[in-house]
Amino acid sequence: MKKFLFIILFLGNFFPIALQAQIDEKYIVKKYIDGYGKEIIGIRVPGKPPDHYRMPVVTSDKGSVILPNVPGYDWSFGCSATSAAMLAGYYDRTNYPDIYSGPANGGIAPLDNSIWGTITINGEVRSQCPISATRLGVDGRTGRGHVDDYWIAYNSAADDPYITNGWIQHDYDECTGDYMKTNQSVFNNADGSTTFWYNTDGSPYIGDGSNNDGLFGLKQFFESKGYEITTYYNQLIYGYEGNTSGFTFAQYKEQIETGRPVLIQVQGHTMLGFGYNDAGNIIYLHDTWDYQTHEMTWGGLYDGMQQYGVGIIELQQNLNPPSTNIYRLEYFLDTDPGFGNGTILSPLADIPKEIRFAKNSDLN
Fold it and tell me: What is the rounded end-to-end Cα distance, in angstroms, of the chain?
């Protein structure tokens, strides 16, 4: 009887490592051996929201650890770029105020992207988010942006519009999708897709830009905003395809506890993890399909898609965080003309965020 129990316990511990499904070949871009003898694998992520349903919304309980101020953005021209935009929005709302500087929401990244509305392109209705994909006329933009230069229709592998129309593409600037090479045909990313690279032995993969890794591009995005990145890497999770060096649930918890959301990679899709619950090894996430909070079991399935990896990016501590002092006031009498239309009192200099007051001192 004791031997029987021992076998059951052994198998219970073994299955999470040995029975992880392999990455579907259709997502694999390339495999090669690098100069250090490591096998490297490129995985393309083309995820988009399902057509006729959404995943259940969850609420936290007393055992949950969840980061506040994490935006939930609806899919906007790529799940990876949208997840990265949520990460960027979170940092903008906390200690890194120069990431978003547009006119919406007083210059602070909003908690959802409804403020920018939708656009229909080639019969497809798409949510807009200039933090993930800029577009002419959106958020005050006066020149062509990411969508104008690179987007045709979901999963299109045709040459990008700037190529077929013979115009010069815009300089990479305000959105994650630019730097991550999302949707860009010259980097073999069909519309909706981004590519990430991993060490197959489970050790962290630190890109250098030579293979257009999406996480390396996200690093460049944050650097373009004036912030230094101290750590960045893609990594398969512990146990995936039998590896014993991968990223663990304990490491994920440490990231959350130190105020850092994590890119969650499941087959064909990128999401943003921003919380956890030890009961059941639950992770809380935004899936880019709506604005809500959802959950999955660490190392398990999300809507049938197996988790295989993470993306980690750590910003250097900002020694000049945004001030909580008021530095811009607007006043007006009787009739509220709306934010931005009052008479501005003299602001204090060098504080990057605006706090505006409306009638009766309502705070925006």
Answer: 67
